[in-house]
# Entry
Amino acid sequence: MTQDPLEIYRKMMLIRECEAQLNDAFARNLFPGYIHSYLGQEACAVGVCDGLSDTDTIVSNHRGRGHYVAKGMALKPMVAEMFGKATGICGGRGGEMHAADPAIGVLGGNGIVGGGLPIAAGAALSAQMDGKGAVSVAFFGDGASNNGSFGETLNVAAAWKLPLILVCENNLYAEMTPLARTVGQPDIALRAAGYGLPGEVVDGNDVLAVREAAGRAIGRARAGDGPTLLELKTYRWGGHFEGDPRKYRTREEEAAWKERCPVARYRAVLLDDRGIDEARIADLEAQVAAEVAEAITFALESPLPVAETALTKVFAA
Amino acid sequence: MTQDPLEIYRKMMLIRECEAQLNDAFARNLFPGYIHSYLGQEACAVGVCDGLSDTDTIVSNHRGRGHYVAKGMALKPMVAEMFGKATGICGGRGGEMHAADPAIGVLGGNGIVGGGLPIAAGAALSAQMDGKGAVSVAFFGDGASNNGSFGETLNVAAAWKLPLILVCENNLYAEMTPLARTVGQPDIALRAAGYGLPGEVVDGNDVLAVREAAGRAIGRARAGDGPTLLELKTYRWGGHFEGDPRKYRTREEEAAWKERCPVARYRAVLLDDRGIDEARIADLEAQVAAEVAEAITFALESPLPVAETALTKVFAA
Amino acid sequence: MATKTYCWAIVDAMREEMERDETVFLIGEDVGAPEGAFGASRGLQKTFGPSRVRDTPISEEIIVGLGVGAAMTGRRPIVEIMFIDFLGLCLDQIANQAAKTHYIYDGMFKMPLVIRTSSAVEMGIGPHHSQSWEAIVGHIPGLKVVMPSTPRDAKGLLKSAIRDNNPVVFIEHIALHRLKEEIEDEELLIPIGKADVKRQGRDVTVVASGLMVARALAAAKTLAKDGIEVEVVDPRTISPIDYDTIVDSVRKTNRALVVTSSHKQFGFGSEVAAEVQERAFFDLDQPVKRLSPPFTPAPFGKQFDDYLNPNTDAIVAAVHELVA
Amino acid sequence: MATKTYCWAIVDAMREEMERDETVFLIGEDVGAPEGAFGASRGLQKTFGPSRVRDTPISEEIIVGLGVGAAMTGRRPIVEIMFIDFLGLCLDQIANQAAKTHYIYDGMFKMPLVIRTSSAVEMGIGPHHSQSWEAIVGHIPGLKVVMPSTPRDAKGLLKSAIRDNNPVVFIEHIALHRLKEEIEDEELLIPIGKADVKRQGRDVTVVASGLMVARALAAAKTLAKDGIEVEVVDPRTISPIDYDTIVDSVRKTNRALVVTSSHKQFGFGSEVAAEVQERAFFDLDQPVKRLSPPFTPAPFGKQFDDYLNPNTDAIVAAVHELVA
Ligand SMILES: Cc1ncc(C[n+]2csc(CCOP(=O)(O)OP(=O)(O)O)c2C)c(N)n1
Ligand SMILES: Cc1ncc(C[n+]2csc(CCOP(=O)(O)OP(=O)(O)O)c2C)c(N)n1
Ligand SMILES: [Mg+2]
Ligand SMILES: [Mg+2]
# Structure
């Protein structure tokens, strides 16, 4: 775990800036395709990944940039991938929903809701067989928790005591449908007990709370004590994708959640509790903004992959 | 619900005899294919179905004869179906894993473990839309509760308050694998709470306990109060199918469960608590045995369907 | 007559059938209050209420299963699977349950179930949203599979599908949703299983489905300038295929090309080529040709899609080869 | 040399590869302590322990998914899906995850995953255990699909599949499990993607897979008595298909018949017929014929299976028609 409290803030700001500047590029018609923004959920990815090292793995979903950044993916190739550029980490083939980096344990995003959970369990099985204390994390949404793969994964993870941390980012919506309309009971974490693993509801907008809960779960997993389901209550500031008119919720609800901004909250902690001065924070913010701007410029200026390359790498040698 | 306590006994004995005489036919090489015996689980089907009427529906699984008999399927066409005969209720096309009768609300068995749960939910949705208080029951095994369809069904049923009773017959094994090896927690009923519906563990070898619990669940469903998950703890006396050498468990374990024979237990209740005399019971037993023998003879003497009929009824008019 | 988009044609078909028959209902992700991820259920929940037009959780297996159970108990469900790429999560309910129930139970149950789904092949959305999997459902006996290429066909076929007593997989294409066409005000029912000759011609038969129909027609226009008259046959129904119409055309033209958005391997192109050569071998002057995207996943980005998928020029070139 | 059953050949292949490479492991329903529902993992858990040979719950989606995740992190999983009829429960993990991961991530991950599964078509077990769905996985780019018809092929292909860095769907047939053949004691690796000419002949090429290979050979014997020499080609690999071998044979015989246990519609027969007519049109004296079960579900009972599935007599008759 990071000892430097500013490092946590830097990661959160990296995500925040990345999302803001990508939305900006989108608004200026510079982005190809959909953006599934991670704005508002920064504390989730950063709090969880803070306890992980490069030998631990994560599996992401369609809303993955926060996870990629928090796990330490290099910014330029990550952003270039979002634009589908040849300089992207997957050469531009993956695009907005798919980036990966085996070197730091990022096993990819997914276009299939719930598709990553079984894969994360597979990575946990590998880690268990290796016996070196590595863990696997699955990030998924509240919507994914209603898919069949969720129950299968909880059960297998509990039965085999896999070193798996199941992180449900409950942002209250799946596309345009509020969670309350599609579940019998709104706390996803409560589903854990029935499958025989611990489950915990955490304030997903409080990075320190997430970090603590994740730390406990990671510790249990490393010690061979099996999986944990964490439900991080949070909110997706944007629409399902950029451009979504968000008719399914009120501007008041959005404003109330923005009041609980995870970045601002942690900034206040730094200022008030950790005695870090405003100037240092502002400095870091400027630096992060510049870094992201550079990555976006890099992506915009990068070439598209040559179309003929689509015929390559269907099979591995 | 049946008021006549002997009627419940008759149904249990019908199942018991049916299974015993089918096994006998199997031993004499008169049965085509596999027999998934229901011996030992009689109280489950009878206890649950006692609260149902013909307008209520059930969905069964691969171990379905108990359900068919308990729901009132005519014996001869049911048994003939098991033998794949032209006189079977499905003309012999369904065979041992598939019998149905829309007239009494039997929506079929299934060769796919877990395949029936979503269908039962669909029938419950129909019943809810009809608004006439009918309910739907899904029978499935402990093994099926580990399939993705289980979680999806619990969640939808709870979210929509469907008039659905989910009956898990936990007989401790899925094929040759004991449940304990494939779950993190052995009580399937405990999974209900996390999805927002009531769950209850019931002694599946006590027909009155099953009947009572099912009655409550059916009552809730009829009243519009939504679904219930019942876990009936029971035991499969035979192997997964007849001929299975049952190497995965001890003869002692089997003997201990046979001590708790659901049929003998209820027989004792009739004798001891209800003051029904031995002769009347023995009479009924003889009558049931004869009825089953007649059905088996009917099936054995019936012709196989003409092979060319396989080309018909792929589509409905 | 009114000009309608493909998307509105879908909405109209459902609305008309829901008005006509109260056992018809619609469920799926975002189909209710949000009125469809692509607007294909606009106004329906407002008219028919939240019981008959319901949002489901992201639970593809039970979405189809709910339809199966409801169809067995007297209703006519329309269930929506947002993208056909999600078929892998619900194929059991489609192929083992919906497709076989009428048959297994000796005709005791009808299965008037419509599974509406969409392809987004060529829209640049990447590998999990760019597949054209009609062949997978086409391989299953007991299913009907429909893939309309125009607004009018979409409306008429969807209405027929809803009235059909069998499971119908109804495959829309998101890129066609904005296509416009005049549609008569009278009731429109287009029979499932009938191909449509979209253009008459004597020289080459082009069998094209979905997105490819418009391109085949555009290619035919170009080729006409060179004096090559192409007959364009849109099967509309992928299973069962109307081979009578296709083979009649080939008997006349003696040359055939099949153009699809799905892979050649085990795909629609192979199916049609195999049957046509069997039925019309001695009428063929050339082997039946197939034009398809190559056998790779679909990477993210329009440039890949443009490269991988057959376009009008490729159709023109393939026809030239056939008549050379 | 030792005589081995098809089933023991499978066991031997896994045992040898597990001994050779400790990253190989096996999971599936009943594969561990019960040693396989059909005995195809006999002795493996005893030798390799319960961590490397594990019983899973009845959770097909995660069975494959566990393999995907483990393969991405350096292992070589063998996962068993008991019957291919259960593909509808795990097709997403096979087709969208396993098949595409290497491609999407630009080659950063290998996917050395074997999905072992079985067909029981023709065994009288009824509609949910009698399908031959090789065409469904054959339609997916990024997968290899193998379907051995003899013990020796089973062993050699399974060993190759385990060493392959790509996902391989390995389709056994339960009825072949007891088939016996002599297999060399030396290491046996049969390359994926190579067809095998099981019998030489000059008059007609019969392409047969799985259960049908033995029947094609039996038919060839009968036909030889009438002076008709049949060449029997067993593709062994369903995807990618070794068309070079098949087309070479057809160029020689000028007549081709494809015999399969899967439906003609969108099936292996159509795929082969389409490609063969495209590549060898002017060498063909007759259209490529296909012999397949009719397009119905499989009802319970041997009499139906015997009626529905191609038998030796039907092959003989079809060949006679081709040479008529
Ligand atoms: C299996 C599947 N079903 C549906 C979709 C379409 N879809 C994409 S994202 C999404 C909502 C996901 O909601 P949630 O899991 O809560 O994640 P969030 O978007 O809120 O982060 C849906 C329905 C999909 N991609 N995959
Ligand atoms: C989806 C699926 N997976 C596996 C099988 C093979 N199979 C048939 S019955 C069975 C065990 C089912 O166990 P359970 O649900 O507990 O029912 P029981 O047989 O104990 O009554 C299995 C694995 C199947 N038919 N369907
Ligand atoms: Mg969400
Ligand atoms: Mg069981």
Remarks:
- The radius of gyration of chain A is 19 Å.
- Strands of chain A lie at 57-59, 136-141, 164-170, 173-174, 177-178, 199-203, 228-233.
